């Protein structure tokens, strides 16, 4: 029997049959989160500003975030996407501005740019699968207003060169740390290095409230614009006759991106678990990488390995090998796959067609700010190649030593047969 015959994919015995628990925040939900949620329901005060027995969970969460991350202002909102949208509003992005984003990211990064009536400009990623600083600078034009470095899958982007370029070229920086809350870069929490940072509290994130988001900044002016915009412009009167507190700025129309007291109560408990979640995930990921370090693959570059939050991604020789390798590992009972199905974000049909809810088939621009930007396969060839050759094995804080053994055994088994 050959090594190929032994693969579960070809009828052999799989390494494991029980699903691996690679969850993060949701996997450690316990009595405290349950008690917090029940307490809000019992108070009948689910709205963030008032109620019959108001507990101020949202306010307390924001105060805890300010202390935890060492920032002047924290705003808890309805989602990570909302946090990105508010970051752009806070930065004063205007219609027709160009915003540079990495080619590898979740569509929400692009959606936030388009919702601000700005134009996304896609830059290459490097072997960290995060924004390549050189490509960022190469894509700057006279219309560039901001850059959104994304800290993808618990690994920080290389922020020092990104910040040097941004400051020298007078570009604002909004960190998309939706997938990396708790991660650090050279001792600094991601999301606190640029002008502002956005986190997600969605179910798959390091900590969760089901849905929710966080915006951090040290700039009062930015916070003031964001907090007003997220609450209908900060100028409407409640049914009880009270006017929302806002402090400055000319009136403008906003939207409702507020967090609920229920989500805030859960998120506050999870925030207290964050350090433990990151540390356990980091230990498990490091063990997998170290024990598989002799495989004939290239590993994802981690700009700050000591600060990453638990990420295991390798690059195979070719897209075909990566696809076959991932299929074989999954057959062994270990989850593995390519981020975003191996496709850059601009390959989404809506982005290729520049199609929005308000303008079908029209470019991302207004008449006063025309753009010649086009999106197409091959736009960022290095990013496309890296993504297609990548394979990610998810890890989490709940993995046991035996689980890590199974991951290592499964990957080695497949490697012996295919590489």
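^ structure tokens above, recovered residues below v
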């Amino acid at each position: 029997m050959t090594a190929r015959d032994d693969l579960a994919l070809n009828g052999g015995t799989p390494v494991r049959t029980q699903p691996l628990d690679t969850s993060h925040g949701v996997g450690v939900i316990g009595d405290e989160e349950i008690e917090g949620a029940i307490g809000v329901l019992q108070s009948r005060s689910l709205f963030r500003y008032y109620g019959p027995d108001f507990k101020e969970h949202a306010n307390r969460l924001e105060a805890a975030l300010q202390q935890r991350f060492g920032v002047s202002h924290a705003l808890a909102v309805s989602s990570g996407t909302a946090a990105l949208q508010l970051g752009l509003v806070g930065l004063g992005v205007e219609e027709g501005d160009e915003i540079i984003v990495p080619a590898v990211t979740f569509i929400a990064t692009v959606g936030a740019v388009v919702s601000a009536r700005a134009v996304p400009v896609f830059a290459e990623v490097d072997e960290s699968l995060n924004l390549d600083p050189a490509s960022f600078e190469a894509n700057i034009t006279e219309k560039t207003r901001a850059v959104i470095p994304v800290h993808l899958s618990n690994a920080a982007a290389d922020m020092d060169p990104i910040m040097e370029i941004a400051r020298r070229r007078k570009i604002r920086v909004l960190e998309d740390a939706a997938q990396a809350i708790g991660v650090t870069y050279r001792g600094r929490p991601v999301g606190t290095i640029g002008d502002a940072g956005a986190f997600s509290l969605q179910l798959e994130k390091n900590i969760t409230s089901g849905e929710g988001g966080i915006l951090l900044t040290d700039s009062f002016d930015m916070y003031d614009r964001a907090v007003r915009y997220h609450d209908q412009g900060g100028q409407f009167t409640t049914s009880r006759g009270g006017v929302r507190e806002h402090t400055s700025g000319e009136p403008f129309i906003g939207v409702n991106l507020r967090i609920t007291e229920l989500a805030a109560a859960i998120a506050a408990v999870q925030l207290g678990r964050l350090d433990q979640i990151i540390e356990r995930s980091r230990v498990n990921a490091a063990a997998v990488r170290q024990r598989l370090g002799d495989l004939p693959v290239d590993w994802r570059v981690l700009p700050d390995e000591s600060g990453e939050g638990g990420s295991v991604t390798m690059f195979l020789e070719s897209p075909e090998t990566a696809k076959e390798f991932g299929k074989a590992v999954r057959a062994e009972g270990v989850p593995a796959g390519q981020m975003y199905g191996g496709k850059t974000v601009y390959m989404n049909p809506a982005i290729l067609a520049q199609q929005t809810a308000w303008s079908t088939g029209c470019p991302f621009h207004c008449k006063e700010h025309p753009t010649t930007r086009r999106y197409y396969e091959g736009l960022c060839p290095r990013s496309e190649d890296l993504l297609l050759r990548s394979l990610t094995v998810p890890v989490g804080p709940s993995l046991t030593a035996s689980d890590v053994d199974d991951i290592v055994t499964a990957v080695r088994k497949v490697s012996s047969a295919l590489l």
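The two ends are 17 Å apart (CA to CA).
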